[in-house]
Structures are given as C-alpha cells and as structure tokens.
Amino acid sequence: MERRFIQFVFLAACVLVSLQLIKAIQDPPKPPQEDPDALAELDPEKAEIPGGEQPDGEADPDRPPGDLEADETHPPSLVSLGSIDHTTGHNLLVTLDSRGAAVRRVELASPRFLSYEHEQDGGYLGHLSVESLINGGAQVRVVGHGTPAFQAKCTDGSISGGLAAGDILRAIDGAEIRHRGDLELVLATTEPGQTVKIELDRPEAVAAGEESAVDEGDNPPAKPATRSLTFDVTLGQHPVEIIKPESTLSQDAAEGEMAMVSHPAAFLTTLARVGEKYAGHQNFEIRGIDSLFERDWKTTVVSENEVHFEAIVEFVENGDENNPHRLRLIKKYRLPDPVPGDNPARDEGYHINYSLEIHNDGDQVTDVAYRQMGPSGLPLEGYWYAHKIHRGWSGAGVRDVTWEARSGSPFEMFTVASIVSRAENKDGERETLMFSPEDAPLTRYAGVDAQYFNCSLLFDHEESTRNEIPLTRGSALPIGPIDTQLKRRTNVSYKLDSRVLKIAPGHHVAHEFRIFAGPKLPALLENYGLENVDYYGWFGFVSRPLLFVLHTLYIPLQNYGLAIILLTVMVRGAMYPISRKQTKNMQLQAQLAPELKKLRDMYKDQPEKMASAQSALFKKYNFNPVGGCGMMFLQLPIFLGLYRGLAVDINLRQAPLIPGVQWCSNLSAPDQLWRWDHLLPSFLAGPEGWLGPFLNILPLVTVVLFLIQQKLFMPPPQDEQQKMQQQVMTFMMLFIGVMFFRVPSGLCIYFITSSIWGIVERKLLPQPKKVVVDPLTVEPDTQAKKAKVRTGASTRKKKQK
User: Global pTM?
Assistant: First the structure.
C-alpha cells in the first residue's frame, strides 16, 4: 500500500510538472510593455501612429457649418429601433439614448430567449424609462414597438394605438403611481399574461404628435392641457436584455456614504487625442473639452430603422482664439431590414450597423484619435452556478472580454478575475492590455461574453472592407464599481483607441462597424465570424457530434430531457463492449482479492516469489490488473465531451424536463425545487455557498446512485487497510455530491441515466467462475516442505528395515 501511494504521488507530481511545462510553452509570459501614458507626457508624437503626409478622410461636398453650436444644449431623448414582436421580422428591440449617443438597451425578440433575471419583477410592460415628475406621476420617455405597452387598447376606443412617449402614468389597477419607484413595485405584484388597467394623462402635445419634455429643475413649466385615458394592457414575459442600464450600491469615495452608482452606457464614443490634447489612459476623456459622454447629442435623423446623433467639439490651441478647431461627430445606428415571417431561429438580423463620422468644419488640419467604448450590462443569469470554459488554465467568469485579430494573433479571452485583479493593482498598470501597442494589429472583433449570450463590435465584415481601422491601444477594464460580494459578477468592458487621423478642412473620416448582440447559437456565431467564442474544451471534437445527435433526437421527441436520456443510452450502448470487459475485469478482481491477500501474507518477505506467483495467477485466469484503468481512459474523452457539450449548449436553456411544470423548467440550470437561502447560513446557501440558494433534487439522486454503484463494484475489504480506503472513497463520493449540487439539471439527467445503465449492466452480467487457486502454482514452499517430509519418512523406513 505504501509503495503504491508513493508511486501515485510521484506520478501525480510528474503530471502537474508536465502540464505547467506545456502551459509555459503554449502561453509564454509577455514581456513588459512601455506605458504609453508616460510616453505621451514626454513626447505626444510617440503616443500615436503617424497619419502620413496626406490628410485622411473624404471631402465634404457642401461643407456646411452645421446648425449645431459647441455650447448648445439639446433636450434628452430616447429612440427605439426594431420590435420585440418577432413576427415583424426583427430579432432585436434597440433603445438608443441621446446622452452620449449610446446604446441604452438591446432586447431579444425571440420567445426562445426569455429572461431569468426578472423572475421577481412580475409581468413585462416594456421598458418605458419613466421619469418622476415634481408634481406627481411618472412620465413615459419611450415605448418600444411590439411591447405590451405599445399594443395596449384604449378602453373607450377614442385613441388608436397604445401608450406613447410623454404619457403621465397615474395608476395601475387602482394602485397610485406617484413616481417611477411605484411603477416597479406595482408591476412586481403582477404575473405574465395578466391584464391590467393603466390610468394616465396624455398631454395634448402628445396627442397631436409633438414631443413632450420631462419636467426638470425646481421651477417646472406650466402644466400643459392633458386628457385622462384608460388602457387595458396584457402583460408579457420579460425578454433577455443583452445590453441594459446597470448600477451598483457602492461607497462614495469622497463622502464615505453608500450610494447607487450608475455604470457607463454601452458604446460611448469620445476623443482620445485632438491636436496636442491627449486623454491619457487613466482618464476616459480629454480634460478641458466638454464631455461627449455626459452631454446630450442632437438627434438629427429618426426613421423606422435608423437614428443619427451629432455633437460639435470646439477647442483652441496655443491661445489662438481667432482660429479655433471645430469638429462635428456623427454616430449612425441602423438595423437591417426585417425579414417578414415567424422565423426567430434565422442566422441573421442580430446586429446593428454602426457608423462613426468625424467632420472637420474648421479651417485647419486637425489631428484626431477617437476612443470607442464597448458594451455594458450583459446578462448575469446563472452567476451562482454557471461556468464558462476558458482556453487557459483559469476558469472563465460570468462576463469576460474577448478579442481577435484579423490574422496573426490568436483568439484571446480576458477573464473578469484577471481584469479585476489588475484593476485592484495600485502600483502599476490598472488596465488589462488586449494586445501589444507596438503591434497595433487589425482587429477582427472585440466583445464581452456571457454564458449564453455575446455582444461584440465587429470590425471585419462586408461593409467595413473599404476601411482599415488600426488601433493603437485596446484595454479591458471594470466600467463600474467592483462587486465586493462577488467579484466575478463585476461589470467589465473595454476601450479602444484609434490611430491619429489627420483630417483636412472640409473633409471627414467615416468608420463602419457592426454591433452583434445575440445568443451563442453555433450557426449564428459562425455567420458573424464569432465561432471562437463558443468553446467546448479539449474534447470539442467529441462534443460537437454528440450535440448534433442530441438536436436531431429532439426533433421527433420535442423534449430535451428525453433526448438526453436517449443519447446517454445510445452512448452507453456503443461503449457496451468496453464497459462489459471492464465490469468482468472488476468482478474477477473481486474474486481474486482473497487469494492475492494469501499470497501477500505468504511472501511478504520474498517480493520476487510474490511477483512470480501473482503473475502466474493473473495469467491462469486471464486477468489484466490495468484493464480497468485502460477502459476508463478510453471512455474519458466521450464522458468529458458529452459533459462539456451539455454544460455549454444554449438549446438546453429554457428547455423543461416536464412541460408545464415549474420545477426543472430550465435544463441548463439546477432543478431548483425550493428556495432556502433565507433559512440557511450564507456559506451554505449564498451565491458563493457550497450548496447555493435552492434545494435541488436531481443532484441528490445522482449521489445516491453513485454510492450504489460504489457498493456494487467495490470488492469486500480483506483487511483494515482496505476497509479504511473504502470509507475514504465513500467520503469522497459525498464530497463530489456537494460539488455536483449546482450542476445543471441536464447534466444530472445524463449522470442518472448513465448510473442506472451501469447498475443494470452489472446485475445482468453472469458471475465469473469461482477462482480455485492451484496449490502447486501459488504455494511452492508448502509443497516443497510436504515433499521433504515424505522423503524423510521414506529414508527412516529404509533404515529401520
């Protein structure tokens, strides 16, 4: 036993050292990089890639001065594109915000993708982004097409259409709405499918089709003429939000009090370099120039599928106030044309065409570099149980940053753990560089990846081929306060700095992008060139064909639970010859165990004779002592491939085991029979606890079957040492059960089916013939002694004669 233990420790150490050597070869440490901030402070020219002798950009034919003034303020506005009704041909409902010309929210239209983050929020009315009014009530700022609010019916039939921007909500089912918080509280008491009555006041300006401004400040304008209306609204189920506003309760650094901190919106754009002014890396924007993040850009174009925002930036260099620089930035968002029909699974339409234009409306050549921020607020669903697979040795997080170059550089994933760790490093660079600034590769895409959804900014697509968009720097970073309770839940994103563009007077530069926001369906990702974000681990070559079979089985069965059971039976059936041989080998080992113990006792001081006798015994009964391990290694790729495939497959999300039953209604999550986190301590039932916030039944069934298998397959102990070993194995099995307690229910169904198959297989196999040890083979000393005794007796008899 001691020798085997020493051998095991030695082999385990060799394996660990080998893995570290392989990691070092595949992923060598990156050399330290110069800090571009320091270079910029010493010499601003070193912080850029030269733009060449000739200015960049195309000529503006009319070169209008524009109707925008640099200090002009514009009213805030929210605009929606697309529809949440997938029958219209749209896959996205997008809400855009004039504040920073940002993407405020992206919702998926397909009923295949409903939200698990809003289970406590009641029925879905639509995200109206209401604002509280000083004189009471909550005013609607935007109504998305296809939402229940959009489809509401006026009870008296005097108004066609549903709720509209500018409406002032007064009550829902008699519950008064005094401010926007009341709206959330009232909706939390409702359920999807419930019909509610909404009482509101509609300003005459809204009824006439004019804009209605939200009251702000201490001196509200005179109350406009309004009309009281009542609408019937049938609430729906909350859709998945790929992008959403997010905020964190955090301690104010200056005042030391807890306050709700709003995170930056998605896809903000500002200037990283203009003239000799440089934002640096510790600041998001250039100091001394009006913020492009915080101001409201002017909404200049609004159509059914397209919105444009404009902002003016003026600045003076070297004190020359008579010759200021004047730049006009235009951000254009356009959805692809809808494809009519009810086809939510099509592999297109999950993107926003995004264009950034920088016009030089001044009278001199201007050096400009822009800074593009990434998405924000990706789904957090499954943060307490789901784990993405990382190509490296560290585990992926709930939200990670991904990046890939057009050629040369491999796919990179920057985990939330590494990003947060770098951000907390106060002694050095606090941002995680996505690529070396010296290389400045052409980027294919940069994105943020969640368990089942992804949002990426695509550089390489058919509309961007005429534009090469080299970057001087890309960095991943937290864009809100670090989540102190669960760091891997921190909101992370990236910022990208373009090269310096020399734009001549009357010219402009336009860069075309696509914003992908959708589910991680393999065919969809491949269509957008994002196939590398869907990763199944080392045995992906096994996972993909098995998942193909699983999806094929689902077509006639229409139940992924049954499909998993049938797939497991097919896999175990295909491996039956291997498992049968392994089982027979284990049965024979159990029968040989008593005889092996006799041999060990007999030759405990004679290892050579012991080895010879044991070899003769194994040869006689055709027993291979490593046969069980060999069979296990043959099955390991199939086991891990199927395990990883079921853990990653988005098709199991929202798939019920029993249709119409709330329990186990999501095979990609634990079965969640009963929520018990209010009864147990946090180290057990907290998000980071051993068991999680729900009592799950399927993991308990899995562990019980594991213990039954162990009891059946384990030979009876021959001494106290073996008995202790088996007790340790039982304890380890219980520990594995704790580890499995948060495993998705689809995986539990696989383990349960596989265990039942193994138990039945063991019971049906005939018992091998009883081992009868040949005494001449295994007891040579004893036979020699008997022969010697017989010889001595014969000699004595002869002497007596």
Answer: 0.83
